[in-house]
Amino acid sequence: MSVPRPTADEDVFRAVADPTRRALMETLGRDGEQTVGALAEAVGQSVPLVSRHLAVLRGAGLVDERRAGRHRIYRLNPAPLQDLFDWAALFSGFWTERVLNLRAYLERQKHET
What we know:
Pfam families: HTH_5. The chain is built from 6 helices and 3 strands.
């Protein structure tokens, strides 16, 4: 029996897999709170499409929403990214070794020429 996978709106890994959602998170992280209209303009997408992406990010806990009159204001909640960071950290030794090997190779090439 297989374990059911979380949907993108519940899973941080799947939520950040989409480049538009990553762009939205980057915009919120860089510029602070934004309306959906400002976010749509920033990422060059339609308001309905950005609203759907924001719903996924909200479901994963990556953005918070508050109402200000008729507007919805979104802000980044980076706390759920800790799971992603912890997982990626498992591979840091791998990349460090690869970079060191590349450096050694390039040094050898430089001395041979």
